[in-house]
Amino acid sequence: MNKLVKSDVYYPAVVPLKDGRSAGSKGKASAAVRRFLFKNKRRILLCACLIAAGAAFGVLAYIRMSVENKNSVFAYMQNYFSGSVLLGASPGEIFKAAFPTLLITGIIMALGGILPPLLPIALARLIFKGFSMGFSTAFFIARYGPKGAAFALVSVVLCGALPLCASVWLLLECRAARGETPPKRGKKRLISWFSIKPKALLTAAVCLSVFVGAALVSALFDSVIGHGLMKSLYGIFTAF
C-alpha cells in the first residue's frame, strides 16, 4: 500500500476533449437521424417505393412520347443551356419557377401529414416527384447518350435530392405530430380527423418553416450553381 502511495505515477482526473461542443452537437444530430430512420423505416420504404414507381412511369412516358413532343423538350433544354431570358431560362426565372413549386409541395406534405384525409394527395405528390425525375433522366440519356448521365446527375440528383428528402421528412414528422386517429365511426371519426391538438399544429408549423428554408436553399442551388454546372458541362461536351 505504501509503495502505491509513494509512486511517482500520476493520472489526470479528467481527460480533455478537443472541441467538445462540436463533437456533442454532431453526436446528437447523428443520433437524431438514426432515431428518425429507425422509427420510420417502413414509412420511408413506402415513400421510396412510391418515388421509384413514379420514376418508372416517367421513363415509360418519355419512351411513349411522340417525336414532335420530344423535339419540343429538346428545344427547351437547348434554350436552358444558352440561358435565354426571353424563354425563361435565366437563373432568376429558374428561381421564380422552382421556389413556388417547392413551397406548394411543402404545404401539401404538411397538410397530408396533419390531416389523414389529405394523405393520399401527399403520396400522389411523391409519385409526381418521382415521375419528373424519371422523365428527366430518360430524356438526358436518350438525347445526349452517355454524356446525359452527367446532366442527370446534376439536374436530378444534386438539384433534386435535398427537396425530395425534405418532403419525405416533413410528411413523416407531421404524421408523428398528429398521432394515431382514434378508431371511431361515422361523423365522430370524421370529426376526429379534423380535430388537431395545438401542440401538433405548432410542430407542423415549425417543420414547415424548416422545409421552407431547405426549399429556399434548393431553389438557389438549382438556379445558380446547378444552372452553372449544367452550362459548364454542355460547353465542355460540345467542345469535343
- Let me know the number of strands: 0
Query: What is the CA-based Rg, rounded?
Result: 25 Å
Percent range of helical residues: over 70%
Low-confidence stretches: 1-7, 9-17
Class from helix and strand fractions = mainly alpha
What gross morphology would you assign?
globular
Largest sheet features: none
Helical region count? 10
**Mean pLDDT across all amino acids:** 82
* N-C termini distance: 81 Å
Q: Describe it for me?
A:
The chain is mainly α. It is 81% helix and 0% strand. It has ten helices and no strands. Helix 3 packs across helix 6, helix 5 packs antiparallel against helix 10 and helix 6 packs antiparallel against helix 7. The longest helix has 42 residues. It starts with a helix and ends with a helix. The N terminus is likely disordered.
